[in-house]
């Protein structure tokens, strides 16, 4: 596959996640209002152990897509398959970090991050040492007993991130995980996520508004149009992992950034129906 070229699918074998022609509308807000068409036939794949990013204008339906993959919503039509199995409407099949951290206010940080393991039936005895280790690696050492309202937005995001990581699922869906972080912390967390993803062997599907974040981390990038969303572009990112800030200065990186920027600018120009 050529760098930056429009590519059509995961190379070889059954993808871990396959979305086929997903359509989703929501009822209009008022009585008699027309339905709002959000997703208009979205098809994408994530291979086993692959890192895939989704870029798209605000309101294009990225979170809706994640809620569909997570089984919180049902598609109007189309298929959602994980490892070849239809998982539409099934919860708990993927690790999910929602756009809003959604930590439980009555649980402290440690108990919040242990939730994913708890739901998966992993004993506290087994899960706790790992949870404590990951909290330290996420810069939250010493915050184990704090409650969510005592944390900054960025700290809540990191706790939510660790919670998603501690589940056993092979696919992690991360919805703008670093949106609330300052630029330096964000870069640190991006590089951390990159190395952790490599270590874990799991697949990641990442929603981001940052072209640089997508290029720094992902093997492939999908660009969605404005709503009703379709896939406008699929780009392969050529660099091997681990990547670093040094990659961002390469002429190839700059070219790809411009290519994605142009597609996104066009995506925003698509009139919203
Ligand atoms: N439960 C719902 N009922 C009605 N409309 C909804 C619902 N959820 C989402 N929408 C609409 O669907 C569209 C897509 O929303 P979504 O949150 O998926 O966008 P997004 O791409 O994640 O945006 P952002 O980048 O700002 O997070 C928006 O117009 C939103 O108002
Ligand atoms: Mg969103």
UniProtKB/TrEMBL annotation:
It comes from the Bacteria. Keywords: ATP-binding, Nucleotide-binding, Transport. Gene3D superfamilies: P-loop containing nucleotide triphosphate hydrolases. Residues 17-251 form the ABC transporter domain. It holds the Pfam family ABC_tran. PROSITE patterns: ABC_TRANSPORTER_1, ABC_TRANSPORTER_2. The keyword Glycoprotein does not apply. SMART domains: AAA. GO terms for molecular function: ATP binding. InterPro entries: AAA+_ATPase (IPR003593), ABC_transporter-like_ATP-bd (IPR003439), ABC_transporter-like_CS (IPR017871), ABC_transporter_ATP-bind (IPR050166), P-loop_NTPase (IPR027417). This is Nitrate ABC transporter ATP-binding protein. It comes from Gordoniibacillus kamchatkensis. The lineage of its organism: Bacteria, Bacillati, Bacillota, Bacilli, Bacillales.
């Amino acid at each position: 596959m050529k760098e930056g070229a429009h590519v059509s699918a995961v190379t070889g074998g059954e993808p871990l996640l396959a979305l086929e022609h997903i359509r989703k509308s929501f009822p209009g807000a008022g009585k008699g209002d027309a339905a709002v068409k959000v997703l208009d036939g979205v098809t994408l794949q994530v291979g086993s152990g692959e890192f895939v990013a989704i870029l798209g204008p605000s309101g294009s339906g990225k979170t809706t897509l994640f809620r569909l993959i997570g089984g919180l919503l049902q598609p109007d039509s189309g298929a959602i398959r994980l490892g070849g199995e239809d998982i539409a409407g099934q919860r708990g099949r993927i690790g999910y970090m929602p756009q809003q951290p959604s930590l439980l206010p009555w649980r402290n940080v440690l108990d919040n991050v242990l939730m994913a393991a708890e739901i998966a039936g992993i004993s506290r005895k087994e899960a706790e040492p790992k949870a404590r280790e990951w909290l330290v690696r996420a810069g939250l050492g010493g915050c184990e007993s704090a409650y969510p309202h005592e944390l900054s937005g960025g700290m809540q995001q990191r706790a939510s991130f660790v919670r998603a990581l501690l589940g056993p699922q092979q696919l992690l869906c991360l919805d703008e995980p670093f949106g609330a972080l300052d630029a330096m912390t964000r870069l640190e967390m991006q590089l951390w996520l990159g190395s952790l993803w490599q270590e874990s062997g799991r697949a990641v599907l990442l929603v981001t508004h940052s072209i640089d974040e997508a290029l720094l981390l992902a093997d492939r990038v999908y660009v969605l149009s404005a709503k009703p969303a379709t896939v406008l572009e699929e780009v392969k990112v050529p660099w091997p992992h681990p990547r670093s800030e040094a990659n961002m200065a390469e002429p190839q990186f700059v070219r790809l950034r411009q290519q994605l920027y142009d597609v996104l600018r066009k995506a925003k120009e698509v009139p919203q129906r």
